[in-house]
Design a protein that fits this description.
This protein has 146 residues and is α/β, with parallel strands linked by helices. The protein is 43% helix and 20% strand. Strands 2-1-3-4-5 form a five-stranded mixed beta sheet. Strand 4 (99-104), helix 5 and strand 5 (123-126) form a beta-alpha-beta unit. Helix 1 runs parallel beside helix 6 and helix 3 packs parallel to helix 4 (86-95). The longest helix has 17 residues, at 6-22. It is globular, with a radius of gyration of 14 Å.
Amino acid sequence: MDVFTDEYFMAKALELALQAFDDEEVPIGAIVVHENKIIGKGYNQTERLQDVTAHAEMLAVTAASNAVNGKYLDSCTLYVTIEPCLMCAGAIQWARLGRVVWGASEPKFGFSRLDPKLLGKTETLGGVMGEQCSDVMKRFFKSRRK
């Protein structure tokens, strides 16, 4: 039995989302995997860095590009707890990621709502551990509304 499933890697991304939650950042986590090895990871740090582009996906892609010493990640998979926004989808396309797997859909800012063909040849899969990923977001925003 293969231990390195989509659920295994999504659980790793979810751990990063919880780290973001603890840091009072929007709780989204992302990892980039190549040949069952995590080569890049990130979680939202827009508040800490005061940078609107410091999304989990952007940080994970940058780390992965540094790890492979190149800008193209066509043999890699990005796992992210929430569907990428348009900005991150653009970065995914430019990095030529081979595959993107996300947990919960993002009805307001998710790229697929606005342009489902944006990622071109990149294989996509949504809904992996979607309920768990969504629950973390709901808990975060509920705690902010008190």
